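ingest -> validate -> predict -> emit
validate: passed (alphabet ok, no gaps, 349 aa)
predict: started
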Amino acid sequence: MRNIALFAALALTTACVEADKGEDAAADGVVITWTQGGHIWRSAADGQPAEDLSAALGLAGEDRWVAPSPGGAWLAFSGTRFGCAGECLVRVSADLSEGEAVLPGGVEVSLRGMPAISADGLSVVYADGGGPHAVDLWRTDRTEAGWSAPVLLTADSSFDHNNMPALSADGQRISYDCGANPYPEDGDNDACVVNLDGTGWQRLVGPDALPDARYPYVQNPHEGPAGLYFEGSWPVNGDAPETIWTLPTGSTVPVQFSARYANAVSPCPLADGRVAMLWLGGNDAGVHELIVAAADGQSELVLTPGLDVADIGIGCAAAPAAAVEDTGGAVEDSGGEVEDSGAEEDSGA
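emit:
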């Protein structure tokens, strides 16, 4: 059964969409974040109106690659704001009342993909050069003196490119793309994991986990209640669509999430077993509709009917109670302005 959130076609074409006061963008306890049209967006998983975060913050160039923290109290993304000389890594609170550039060792970071941010907003993980590989994962921590010098997390990786970190719900592990090439679609891309302190690196699954993969890569791994969720393309009933697979905890054999979702990418599992994803197979236009699939994989809620969400990664998290009770997911009495926490002075911009 295909349920459509009818608000989306209208909501995503407006300059700024906010939930009515008292109705929250995370009313079901979950927030989902994505990029569309050069803006970053946030919605509940139950069809509440979407919120154009870029417009609410005040338009300042392109925003993209938005990820919520576990619990949803913070957001990290790439944007041109808070004193950045160009597009750089930034963080904002869930109620949008404060924000700043994330400056590891006082230096701006140009993102190469999705970041990850801890539940308390004090640790941010991102991909960058400067390490033993072409691209590594790094962590920076917020202290009273500012953002710490970057800490290398993927020193033990056997892959030259390490990108697209996704933090586990307990905040202890990072699952991510690991491969031989800058882009997973170029082939030889697997899914790896490392602890937030840089220990415990491990390759989890690759295209060789089952025979006859259509494409020589897996990508976009996220840890969820059933294990690891990711994109794969092994044959099922004579066909080999790119779709969502799980690697059950303790297993080495991937399992298809649901035969219903052929041509689906960017899985983001929710704690209750539902899975947010981008699905091209549910429409005739061939666009990446953002959906929330039921835990049994037999029905879905379509959050963006007919609209092409950017296939660069989506985020999901439980919503912070304060955001539900206090702001309804909207900026109040600020005219879309947020507090600049001094990042401009820190960066020297």
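The chain has one domain: 2-331.
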